[in-house]
Write a structure and sequence with these properties.
Blueprint lengths: L10 H10 L4 H16 L1 H15 L20 H13 L1 H10 L4 H8 L1 H13 L7 H7 L4 E4 L2 E7 L2 H9 L9 E6 L9 H18 L7 E6 L15 H6 L3 E5 L6 H8 L14 H11 L7 E6 L1
Parallel strand pairs: 3-4
Antiparallel strand pairs: 1-2, 2-3, 4-6, 5-6
Helix pairs in contact: 1-2, 2-3, 2-4, 3-4, 12-13
């Protein structure tokens, strides 16, 4: 995909674009005010153009692209918001890709609106606008991730250990075969079995129709939500345990990862243990487990779609 021209929407159009991407209202004025600097400062404009070119190269190819946009030096607003401008400038390219794949407009819009959700997470954690993990949003803006109901699905491939586990289960698949990574975004309500069933039904239809050359038979997930220790604290009929029960264990990780559950449940992975609230069963489970000197781990599982 060529990127002959890279630019940002005019100021009077930019607000509408940001609203379509679910950018929090409290961030919009600052983004509008900085737009002129992004387009007139030679250094920032060069970084913007380079970032877009790298982002959209090999558009749609899983694992492609040139990595996260390079962020200007400093910690001020231009640095914090710079990745947002790169993603906005890349919109014409990802939308063209979606149209080429006949992706419905509502799915395209909801997928790309994950930008606003992550900006809300940034403000919740840091108290200012910005985007903490631009590399993650690059997957959405490259046609690799799609929001289908409650869950997100990423076009991916089986790794060595998960692929061997699938093969050992008797399926004619193995490492490097195509698979869907399942992601559970926050701020979208509970992961009820019915909501997950609906998402999976949507995924079966969506990928068969829009990516027929990629026959997805396996879904996999790598998340703290699959840590089997959660069963020590949550009731058997909880949504998280029901989600876990969909998966076969692919591998066990020995390295602790306490930051993910703390970050997702409480909003900030760096919160001190004595400050973690105990308002819900899940909050008590995550905090009490850590306060007892124990750790949480990433779970890795798979199932046949």
């Amino acid at each position: 995909m060529t990127t002959a021209h890279v630019g940002l929407p005019e100021s009077d159009e930019l607000a509408d674009v940001l609203l379509d991407l679910a950018v929090p209202h409290e961030d919009i004025n600052e983004l509008l005010a900085l737009r002129g600097r992004m387009t007139t400062d030679p250094g920032l404009r060069r970084l913007l153009e380079t970032g877009v070119h790298k982002l959209v190269q090999d558009m749609g190819r899983p694992g492609g692209g040139g990595g996260s946009p390079r962020i200007p030096d400093g910690s001020g607003a231009p640095a914090r918001f710079f990745p947002v401008y790169v993603l906005v400038a890349a919109l014409p390219y990802v939308r063209a890709y979606h149209r080429g794949r006949c992706v419905p407009d509502d799915i395209s819009r909801r997928t790309l609106a994950d930008l606003g959700r992550h900006m809300a997470v940034h403000r919740r954690r840091h108290g200012v606008g910005g985007l903490s993990i631009p590399g993650w949003l690059a997957l959405h803006f490259r046609g690799e991730i799609y929001q289908l109901g409650r869950l997100q699905f990423q076009r991916s491939r089986l790794g060595s250990r998960t692929g061997e586990a699938v093969r050992a289960a008797g399926l004619p698949l193995g490492p490097d075969d195509v698979a869907l990574d399942v992601h559970v975004p926050g701020f979208l309500g509970p992961i009820t079995p019915a909501a997950c069933d609906r998402s999976l039904a949507l995924a079966r239809e969506f990928f068969a129709r829009h990516f027929p050359e990629e026959p997805y038979r396996i879904a996999m997930c790598h998340s703290w939500l699959l840590d089997p220790q959660l069963a020590e604290y949550l009731p058997e009929d909880s949504n998280i345990i029901a989600f876990q029960n969909r998966f076969h264990t692919a591998q066990k990780i020995k390295e602790a990862d306490d930051g993910d559950p703390v970050g997702f449940v409480f909003g900030d992975p760096k919160l001190p243990l004595d400050k973690l609230p105990r308002r819900t069963t899940l909050e008590r489970a995550i905090g009490d487990h850590l306060r007892a000197g124990r750790h949480w781990y990433q779970g890795h599982g798979w199932f046949e779609i």
